[in-house]
Amino acid sequence: MRRTFFLFLMLLTFGWLSAAKVVSPDGKLVFEIKVNQGEVLYEVLYEGETFVAPSALGLATTLGDFRKDLMLAKQSAVSLIEEHYALRTIKSSSVHYRAHEVIFSFNQDERHVFDLEVQVSNNDIAFRYKVYPQGETLVTRVFEEETTYVFPEGTSTFLSPQMEPMTAFARTAPSYETPYFPDGPVGQNGWGNGYVFPALFRIGDAGWVLISETGVDSRYAASRLLGKDDGSYKIGHPMEAENNGNGTVAPGIALPGYTPWRTLTVGTTLQPIVETTIPFDVVEEKYPASENYAFGKGSWSWIIKMDGHTTYETQKEYIDFSAAMGYSYVLVDALWDTQIGRDRIEELAAYAASKDVALFLWYNSNGYWNDAPQGPHGYMHQSSVRRPEMEWMQGIGVKGIKVDFFGGDKQVTMDVYESLLYDANDYGLMVIFHGTTLPRGWERMFPNFASSEAVLASEMLHFSQERCDEEAVQASMHPFIRNTVASMDFGGSALNQYYNANNTPGVGTQRKTSDVFALATAVLFQSPVQFFALAPNNMHDAPAWAIDFMKEVPSLWDEVRFIDGYPGRYAVLARRSGDQWYVAGINAGEETLQLELDPDLFVGAERLRLYSDDSGLKGSLKVQKMKPGSSLKVSVPKNGGFVLTQ
Length: 646
Ligand code: CA
Known about the structure:
This protein is an alpha+beta fold. It contains 17 helices and 37 strands.
């Protein structure tokens, strides 16, 4: 009886259930809510086509099971969110976010239990749950989030498996360093533990959906995506064993409080996927920058020369190298505490300053959560020990830190990330994370956050010939998946042919991609601070045009555009810095790619520089005059690349 009355009231006030939807400003993207026998479902349509079929919503909490017996009690009027913001550290320095927002309120037994806040822009959906206090209960824990993703028949997947906790090097997993697998089937669950974010789905010939989450900080845990046998996917909390079993997998929230935003980017092509800013649109800066951070480029010896070369002599050589390249930084990697020592680090910092270069210092995040032996450790896990350390760094002119080996997505780890960033800002330090989870909106939330690894990065090229053989396949996916939602510290663009200290042929792994490929990834991979895998020997053993390009390539961009590509096969993007465009592409496919590029980006340019490969992957630079109406043809062989710029 009560239910009938409620339904009657609801229909009276808000019309039929089909009216429970949010439509994008351009009218093409629709997020629709349905309540079916007390269960809440959502559906996503684009231009009338189903991109996400009816999929469950809801939460299981200490306050009750909010996955059933739910009623849509009310929905807000549609409000228009219109925001312009500037952010130098993402792929677009000036963003215009325009979305429709509706807040849906759900009751259970006449109690208002949660709202679903939904924002729909032209190609993006973001929604989150707001949980309300019940009586005198002002806190809760969330055991499970029911949010599910059901895709239409014919969907294929581009996913990266989550690792088994407390495995891999020194029990540091999950370290978020697994490959993405293109064109996979639905109905699997990775290696048994689901998948990391972001996750890309191809909806047959209709288009694409990219799923991720954003706005994760100490107020919640980060999530993963669980694949079910029936082909659906569901939000999963961290695993019990992460961080050596420390910390809960059921995040706690003060009430009223929020879950992170779930995001879906939807398009008939990959353009909206490449150009989305949704991870940053719905989050806010958590504290002001203590200074105007100088994001920029640098070099690091570790990637080519490894642990044994974190020495005073080698780091001095890299400072000279960075100075010769016009780079701002040198990253002194693991073991400097024992192999260089604090006093000589101070000497190095002073030497660097004399060359207009500054240092980033590596730290172990530990802590009590893994066995990674590399030092310095015991400095970054707690505020009381890291603040004096950061004060020392600030005093000697260090400008940033790279903190490694986190492993885990629990709320307790999110607190470490957030408080570490907050402390570092007090001492003017930029922060890079390695052995780390995906940053979720952090470029906007934390102004001194620079970048995170969270990718099968350049070190794996050093460690594994198989990874070198597959380099182009993985690289062709990052612009469409991992790197489109967050800055990516890949640490690549090597010009060494061999990953060993002296580029000696036949020693260590061999790079299979061309020099022009290395140049192209410096454009394709976005990170406001770029530590390239270049080495001082490249000044004489790499082509002069390649070195010159690596000197000039920006690390901060004003705009990105999708040009062409298919994840796992090839990728072509355009990025703009000031009024200069760089169009860059790489090819992982067996067949040579024949591209005809639209010259519109280069209107007004008198000449263009084309870096390209011949069929034997031998690169060259050609300068050509721009003639009106002339088309720009480029061929890109397998493992090759190109860059076109003014
Ligand atoms: Ca790593």
